[in-house]
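Reopening this ticket.

The earlier resolution said the output was attached, but the attachment link was broken on my side. Pasting everything inline this time so it's all in one place.
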Amino acid sequence: MADSPIPAPWLDRLRRSAERRRALGRDRAIHPPVGLDVCSNDYLGLRRDPRLAEAAAAAARAHGAGTGAARLLRGTTPLHEALEAELATWKGAGACLLFNTGYQANATLLPALLGPGDAVFSDALNHASLVDGCRLARAGGAAVQVYRHLDLAELARRLEAWRAEAAPGALALVATDAVFSMDGDAADLPGLLDLCGRFEALLLVDEAHATGLLGPSGAGLAEHQGVPGQVPLVMGTLGKALGAFGAFVCAGPELREHLVNTARGFIFSTALPPPVIGAALEGVRIARAEPWRRARALGHAQRLREALGQPGAPSAIVPVPVGADAEAVRLARILQARGFDVRAVRPPTVPEGSARLRITTGAHLEEGDVASLAAALREILRLG
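Inline output:
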């Protein structure tokens, strides 16, 4: 075998890093699916729906396999514009802009919107993409303040203190997940809108785990909490409940125009391919037309929580706290051996000492599947 082309000092660093991860029980590896899916974000069971596959094939036949360019060059097809219009209507927004991933969108939005003297206020349990967006905004001169999870009183104090000291013309932005991906709980959007109104702050809500699943039409948490169309900046994804791939930002036309001209992740990325857009359009149509899918997914989650003695939550995410990293991995392996694809979630994805099993329920599951999973969990957790 040829010697590694990696310089020796770099190999030493990589090996030390791997040893530290193994010692902490945090070594990660890529594993294929095993058994029944109770860990993905395919909440509506659309990922393998033949209607999405046919829509993707039709889009490929009509528009090609790829776009060949960024949107500002030659990467826009009529399908892109149709999907943006459909999403804007669904979310009650004035406009929409597609992005390639939710991570790219969140990491791009904040540095595009904030500059020197501005500030972003971020919930402590926001997704890593928002955390990294905050870091990029800080590199551009913005201040970053993290408030306790869901603590609107602390957020109000921080906004008030910042406003008292901020320079004239400085702007504030509040960023939050709608449904928090590792806990399954939800933000108080009416309360956040009230606070942002008082302090003239822009509210950014990441509805990745709410789009398609919550609200009378599946539009998301804003609709579910009675404030549809009132959140000025909403990010959502196409690869979770909608069964396809990609992300979008719904906002007013002024914000969309600003992002088209300043969001580097949008400007410098090849546009999403037509088959993906075709599948996403079909996913949106089905999500809106078949409400039984979200009712089924949410009902499964509620039954599982009841079996585990957990309080209710407005999501299809059921976290099972474990604590120790190695124990979470051990329990996940037991469940996988019994035919349930459960994965362990460890730091830095969650805070230190809060490793867990993250279980999700989807419309593809039967009631018997959920009952069997609940029984297995109660046994290995020694509940009851």
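Reporter confirms the inline version is readable. The domain at 291-380 is CATH 3.90.1150.10 (Aspartate Aminotransferase, domain 1). Residues 8-24 form the longest helix (17 residues).
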